[in-house]
Structure formats: C-alpha cells, structure tokens
What does this fold into?
Amino acid sequence: MKHMNSEVKEERTSNKKRIDLFLVPIVLIAAFLNLFKIWTDEYANAYYTAAVKSMLQSFHNFFYASFDPGGYVTIDKPPVVFWIQTISAKIFGFHGWSVILPQALAGIGSVLLLYVLVKRTFGVWAGRFAALAMALTPIVPAVSRTNNIDSMLVFTLLVATWMLFRAVRTAKFGWVLAAFAMIGVAFNMKMLQAYMVLPAFYVFYVVATKITWKKKIAFLTTATALMLAVSVSWAVVVDSTSADKRPYMGSSQTNSVLELAFGYNGINRLTGNTSVTGSSHKQPAQAQQQTASSETKQTSSSNAESSQSSNQSKSSSSQKMQAPDGGNQNGMFNTGNPGPFRLFQKGLSDQISWLLPFVIFSIVGLFAGVKFKGPYTAKQKESLFWLAWLLPVAVFFSIAGFFHQYYLIMLAPPIAAFAGAGAVALWSMYKQHNGWKSWLLPSGILTTAALQVYIMSPYVSSIGVAPIAGVGALGVILALVLAIRKERKNSVTNYLGVAAMVVLLAMPAYWAMTPIIYGGNSMLPAAGPDSSSGMGGPPSTATNSKQSGFNGMQPPGSSGSNSSSNNQMQPPSGSSNGGQMQMPGGSSNNGQMQPPSGSSNSVQMPGGSSKNNGQMQIPSSSSSKLSSSKRKSGGMNAEVNTKLLNYLTKNNTGEKYLFATTDSTSAAPYIIKTGKPVMAMGGFSGSDPILTVSKLKSMIKKGEVKYFYLSGMGKGGQSDVITWIKENSKEIPSSKWQSTSSSSQQGPSGNGTLYEITLK
It folds into this structure.
C-alpha cells in the first residue's frame, strides 16, 4: 500500500511539471489532420446529419435518436454520440462541421490519452512516439474528420483504459467500476464493438492487481454487472416503451434495440449474415458471379417496363461484379479476403498496417525472457494489456464477414502503443548489445520498410515511383548501417536511429493527409490517394472523379442527360433483399453491390469509363483534389431538387410528412435542408418491415402523408406497400417537379416517380 501511495504522489508531482514541449507539435499535427477544412463538408454523412437535425427539434427525437423529425424511424446506432453531436450543433449552429467537431476533438484527445498512458510506464520518449504514431495512423484522421461514431468510440475506450490503469495503481475499487461503466457508455455508441477490449481489461486486472483471487473475481463480477446494466439501460427503456409511442428501431427486423445490438450490429458482423425480410444471406469472401432478375427504375410506361424486363433477362447471366481495384480478390468495400494475412492485403494495409512489422518485433523484445508464472514488471503487465487488445481485434478483422475499412481504427491504439514502447525498448537493447535482441531494431526497420513498399506499390500511378523507391532504399540502407555500427556508441548512431523512425513514419504521414489533399468521403471514410471514393483502394484507370465517391449522383427528381447511360450504377429494385447497395451502419445485402439488370455489364462509380465490362471502376486521384467550395459528401444522394421541393411545399395541405420514400438515401437531404419530416418507409436501406398497407391507409386517411417518391432503392421488405401505392395513386407528371439539369448524374434514387394518394 505504501508503494501504491508513493506512486500516486509521484503522479501528482509529475502532473504539476511544465508541459512537454515535444508534445506540442504532435498535438498540432493531430489538430491539423483532424480539423483542417472540415468546414467544407456541408452535409457530412447525411444519414447521421439528418438525425441530428431531427434531434434538435424535440426531446422525443433527441432521446430516441430519430432519423426524421416526424419520429417515424431511428438511425441504426445507439444515441450517445449523436447526443453529443446534437449538443454541438445546438451550441455552434447546425452545420456539417459542427456535427463533425466532436469526433475531430476526440481524435486529438485519443492522441493525448495515448501519450499519458504510455509515458508513465515506458518513458517520455515512448509516450511521444506513441502519440505521434497514433496521430499519423491514416485511418484515425480519416474517420475523425467525419460524423461517424468510431473516433468517439476509441476515445471513450481509452478513457476507460486510463481509469483501469489508475485502478491498478491506486488499488481502489471505485476506479474499476468507473472503467467498466465507461465501456457500458461505449456500448451505447456502437454496441458490441465496444466489448472488443474486454479481454484486455480482464487479463490486465487479473495479472496486475496484487489482491486475492477471491477479491479479483468479486470485483470483476461486480464491475461486469455494472457494465452490462449501463450497456442495456437505454435499450431496456426503448424496448419497454409501446411501439406506437416511439420511432421504429431502424435496421432491426423486430423493432428491438437488443436484437439490433446482438444481431445486425453484433454477431452478423462476424458471420457476414444479415437478416433481410426474414431471410438470411451470407457475404462471400470475394465478389462472385451475380444474377440479377430485378426490375429497373420505374417509368410511366408499362410497355417500357416490359421491354426493360426482357432485356434484363438476356443480360443478367453475364453480369459480374468485381472488386474495387479492378479484380475480384479484394472483396466488397475493399476489405480483402478472410485469412491470417488479411490485414496485409490491399485496402486494409494502407489504412492501419504501416507499422505492424515493427510492432511484431517490439512485442518480441518487450516479452523476451518473460516467464509464464511471473513475476511481471509494470512494463510487461501493460504490454500484456495492449497485446490482449491487439490480438482479439486483429483476429476479428481477419475473419469477419462484414465490416468497413474505417472500423480498423480499433487497432490504432495498441499498434501506436507498441510502436512507442517498442521503439524505446528495441533501441535500448540495440545500444546495450543485448545478444540476439540487439538485432531486433535493424530487423524491424528493414521488414517495416519492405511492407511499406508493398503497400504503396499498387499506387505507383498516383504517387509515382520516387517515394516508393525512397522508402525502400532508405529503409535498407539505415537497417544495414545500424547493423554494421552495432558495436559503436556515438551520436552518429543516435541520429541514424532517429532517421529510421522518420522514414518509417513519412508515408503514413502522407497517407494521413490524403483526405485533406484529395477530399474525403463522409459515408465510407478511408485514407489514400482515392480517399474521396470512399473505397480506399488502389486506383484504377478511371478518370474525372468527384470529390466524394458518390457525391455526383442524382438527387430525387433530377433528370440528367445520362439517364440511359451504361456508365451509371443502378441497384436492382425488385430483389428479395431490397436491391440496395448498403453503406455505413451495416449491410442488409451483406456488403455486396448488385449490378444493374439491364446494363451492358458495366458497373461504375461516377466519373468512370465503361471500357472494362463487368468491372466496378474507382475514380483515379488525378482530378480529385479538394476544391474550396462546400462539399456535399453526405452520401449517394446528398443533393436537393429545388423544383421537387417547391412543388411538395406548395401542395402540402397540412400533411405531417413532406413526402414518403423508400429509404433514407432520398429522405436525408430534404430533412437536412428543410427540417421537415420525410418518411423513409423502409428505414436506412429500405428493408425494414416498418410499414404495412393497413398502417399506410390509416396514415393517409388521417392526412399525415399523400406524396410518395419511388425509385429503384429499398424495395425488399415493403413490396406489398409499394405495389399498393402504385395501384392506388395518381402519378404526378414529371414536368411539374422533375429537374432538367444536365449536370446531374443518375443515382440510385434518381429518375423515380412521384405519386399522390388521397383517401376519404
């Protein structure tokens, strides 16, 4: 106990010391990467931004995290992060940057927390290098520059880690409770993803605390019970509330938060299975041959529909969806194929794995000579904590059926911690000529440089040969010189060690800047020369990219000159799974993108060419640099058709909803623009079984809704409703509401049909 008290006193004394001047530029770098030009993102992730707009309007919407101001359906995540975003928007006004700001600050806070966590045990230089590695891990600023949840989630888990470390140092049970309660708070940010750190918390507490096993079990059991209580607190309140008194729980199939947590946002992420309208589909490891027997966008001519259907049947057998890099080896959303080396595959390695070889050598050095039965030093105990965080999360991403690239931010803290602690430990072993351990430093530098060359090689057309050759050559030279000079002790050797660290961080630093240089994507954030595409993969031959991967697509009611072009991406609308291309928050189509049924075998992103049949082209970086104008990168359809909006507003006769549409993609921009209720009948992807024909009839009779915009998205789960709307409505002539702008490109919600229904 005296030892514990002395540690606390030492910590208080340390905290009174002046600020670490070396930390200042690191924090400034993090601030630049996380904050610079976030004000150019007007919509951010429109799905979540629309929810903030709705939550600002009433406490009812605020508490339930309602997607729309009418309280029809919630977003597909718990509310805590969006509560924070709403408070930010209330203070600073409703803007894209004001909903991004909390995540950007959380990214900076994570850098500071990692410095504090590593510095105390491993030394100030370890803390500095860990903080710098965290700041320069490309996926960290890429996510922190958006209103997605993950940056805030990681910050919260690092706060919980600080509490746990303090609990061990002070031997106070209250800090244990606080640490596990904080994980419960994190659960209410992104559900089961927060529990990924639990192995580290349990292992560290058991190994690091010097109390009896009886107390350890009792304390951990109590803390776990508190964590679970905090985790399900909001879910229990929501699920206990009558369904007619609250919004439908978005992306669930049974209108339940707990089902959402442990199904759609839980186990299904691992298995790749997602339930859609009662069926289950498994995402294959790689994009496979697709057969699409679905209808295309709706038109007013039944003869045209019949003709299109015939064409679809002829072409569907030859359509093929390939991976974003032009081949089919990299899976959907560029997350690679499951396996032990998945994190070294294209699309993932450039987001998180730049320092992984160095981390592996660091782990070897930090655990060298450790005996299973102990005793363990403080460094070994905390190294065990970071290892117990790193390994389970790495295993998950190596085998998971479905996730997005930006989820990899969960790996950033342990990688950065080992990079900092390992740099100091390996340098010490090198300087002390500690047998075989002295070879770990040059070996780590050499293998890490080799991996970085491998990571950059697919991007040679974007970044050129010079940086790739430079990193490779300098890595080899510095590693060899360090190996040769291993027996010498002078300042030159010290400079060589610093130079090696600079070389290893140079390209991660550049990659971390790419969302600023080339523009980011707020729906699918990823770093790299194609960061604006949202796919974070190697460039293809396509050109004329937009600043945001889906930014150029057509808003509801726009009619561009390309309406029949084969260069457009048109998801099928009649498949059992809704035919939608799923974006953030999950995938009811298991991460697969369906090619259009009537196309000429070409599925492309905006700006791509159509010469490679059957391949999905990702825009090159040649023309994707961020302009000074506002970016509306809120997703596939972050634009408002002013003519449609004017028509709906003028003809509204007191209806609650401005209009209804199949999914959130079409609804979000109008909610953001007007603050008026727009009904996403099938929730985020259009597949939620929210609405029935009888319920819709009742709403129409009550005068709650009369206009319906139907497109090719989100038909799964509401086919009966859409069929009934078509059979009982009056089609509004497109000349009254449809834009004729030729600058718009066709999107998944473009070229739809507007219907009006009035029932007595």
